[in-house]
Amino acid sequence: MTRLAVADAAQARADFDGAADGRGVVVEIPLDKLKKSPRNARKTPHSLEAISALAASIAARTMIHFPVVEPEMRPDGSPTGRYLVTIGEGRRLAMRLLAERKVVAKTVPVRCVLMPGHDPLELSLDENVTRSDMHPADQVEAFRALSDEKGWSAEEIAARFGVSPQVVRQRLRLGAVSPRLMALYREEGLTLDQLMAFAVSEDHARQEQVLDALTWNRSPAAIRRAMTEDKIGADDCRAVFVGVEAYLEAGGRLMRDLFTEDGGGWIEDVALLERLVGEGLAARAADLKVREGWKWVEAHLDFPHAHGLPRVYPRPVERSAEDRAAMDALAAEYDALAETWAAAEDLPPEVEARLGQIDAALAAYGADSAYDPDDIARGGAFVALAHDGQVRVERGFIRPEDARRPAPGAGGDDADGVVRSDGGPAGDGCVPTGAVATAPEDDEEPEGQTALSDRLVADLTAHRTAALRDALAGDPDAALLALVHVLVLKTFFPLAGAASCLDVRLASAPLARHAEGIEDGPVWRRIAERHEIWARQMPADAGEVWAFVVGLDGDSRLSLMAHCASLTLDAVRHWERRPLAWAQADALAAMVGLDMATCWTPTVRSYLGRVTKARILEAVGEAVSQEAAERLAGMKKPQMAEAAQAALAGSGWLPELLRTTPIEVGAGPGLASEAG
């Protein structure tokens, strides 16, 4: 092939005509003299990414493949002095990009090939049709060789080939898979998506183990699950608590998936992470014990729901009339200033300063409620990890050996010294308590009289019990008082033993064992807040509960009864079949107008990622439309679940188990009837 320098258009035409042997001639043409050819078979525009990659390659290694050109002719057959690029339009655009970036001059000579005697369209078509692309396996192995043999970083390789460093890292990771898997990929025994799923880890032994274990379901999702089953995600509450950076600084290893959104990767050294969690929680527990003075503080990874300990709560702080008046005055001044300047975008410095002074003055009075020092001295707290990785602190628990004992002769369930509890708020075993009830000493027998026998005492009081039952049945108001009284005792004073003459037993099933993270939800928080509000109002001694209940107004008494009764409700469906109880729960839901859409939404985590594709499509079809469901039908399960979550957002759709079906109340037979 002959090489010529083009001096002018006439010389170029002469050279073009002179190269009649068809082997082509290499010429150097200024970049600004090259134009796009209308005879180029490739009509689809080059992407900016492709042009950028070509520009990086040319800048690093010069142009390896020369463009094929022909002289541009006027209608009369004379040359214009410009050249049409038959093959290599992408290279021309890459050179222009380098010129725009001031890497080369606009007039830089470009080596081109003149091919006289050939149809430009045929040349362009041949160049695009007959060539074959490099197999992706060859490409990733070549990238790996550049990294291993030349020591080039992902950034250096990316700069030389015009791709992003992330793309280079992906190819390097693929190049590091087991040779056995790479051979299968070359033979089309594995798809690229499957190979990328295996590449989540660089452990060849693990890759081959999973390959052999997954015989029929080798979907990328199944492969990734198998490859990471002994790891925990970086979004796990333990990793969030410790922090990925702290874990890495302690020598931990993090596995990343370069091909998908991996939520921050996977923790490989689970034992190290759990040790760091334990140390962190223990440090928080020790600090809490010193700061607040509890007798004991225990650290647990998960909150110990089955601890069975009763619980005390803060009590309102008694304040003097002078302190209360001063606090009320400060609060009134604060409210007045806030109302006066509510519309102002910026507060005057003196107003802002005064508001700060009022805040500080009110804070100096301390909280409105506090734990009794005696309760702190004999009680303790649990420090645990919450579902979102935050520290959960629960205070005020009393161990059996630290509980106040009934007075001698009080009798009752706890007379033997055994502490018993009957469940707690929301079924978490956290049973609030006050002091146990005490009974007056038995009256001394008058002098000269003999005490009644136990048998006679039982006989007489049995008759009285029967009569009292009959009388109570005829007085609903008194019965309601007695029922609320025993419910309050069982809920807030489990150590009181037999402090009520009504033998009513309560139990509350723990829900956290069935629904992970339920304690972090708004419903659970509302229950706990309501429980604490009531607990703070309870008298210190169970013997005073009757007077407390009698002294409540009717609405408050009913609200308290509803709270206590609600804590015993169990409508969980599991292995124990209770069809009548479930039916009653459905009727209750209809009666109270339960709308689960206000406190539950279908997300990948809560539902969509845990059901079949058919269920996902059914949900979208019901909530949106069948057309919307059909658009998702061809997706893989993870992508389908994500798309369905977006489609269902704000729709109010609920799975059948959470729907409330209206039920006609009062349709059944009456519950009261005449005796006889």
- Label the overall shape: elongated
Head-to-tail CA distance between termini: 122 Å
Could you tell me the mean pLDDT? 80
Q: Beta-sheet strand percentage?
A: 5-15%
Structural class: alpha/beta
Binned, the helix content reads 40-55%
For the secondary structure, the number of strands is 16
Radius of gyration: 40 Å
Strand order of the largest sheet: 1-2-6-4-5-3
Total DSSP helices: 26
How is the biggest beta sheet arranged? 6 strands, mixed
Instruction: Report low-confidence residues grouped into runs of 5 or more.
Output: 1-7, 408-424, 426-442, 667-676
Give a written overview of the molecule.
- With 676 residues, the protein is an alpha/beta fold.
- Among the domains are: 2-129, Conserved hypothetical protein from pyrococcus furiosus pfu- 392566-001, ParB domain; 230-292, no CATH class; 373-439 and 459-570, no CATH class; 596-658, no CATH class.
- The protein has 26 helices and 16 strands.
- The strands form five sheets. A six-stranded mixed beta sheet has the order 1-2-6-4-5-3. Strands 7-9-8 form a three-stranded antiparallel beta sheet, with no helix packed on it.
- The chain is elongated.
- The relative contact order is 0.05.
Outline the fold blueprint.
Blueprint lengths: L1 E4 L3 H10 L6 E6 L3 E3 L11 H14 L6 E6 L5 E9 L1 H12 L8 E6 L5 H10 L6 H15 L3 H8 L3 H11 L3 H8 L5 H7 L5 H10 L6 H8 L4 E2 L3 H6 L1 H6 L4 E2 L10 E2 L2 H23 L3 E5 L9 E2 L3 E2 L4 H20 L8 H16 L4 E2 L2 H6 E7 L5 E8 L32 E2 L21 H20 L2 H17 L29 H16 L7 H7 L2 H13 L12 H14 L20 H11 L2 H7 L4 H12 L28
Parallel strand pairs: 1-2, 3-5, 4-6, 10-14, 11-16
Antiparallel strand pairs: 2-6, 4-5, 7-9, 8-9, 12-13, 14-15
Helix pairs in contact: 2-3, 5-7, 6-7, 9-11, 15-16, 19-21, 19-22, 24-25, 24-26
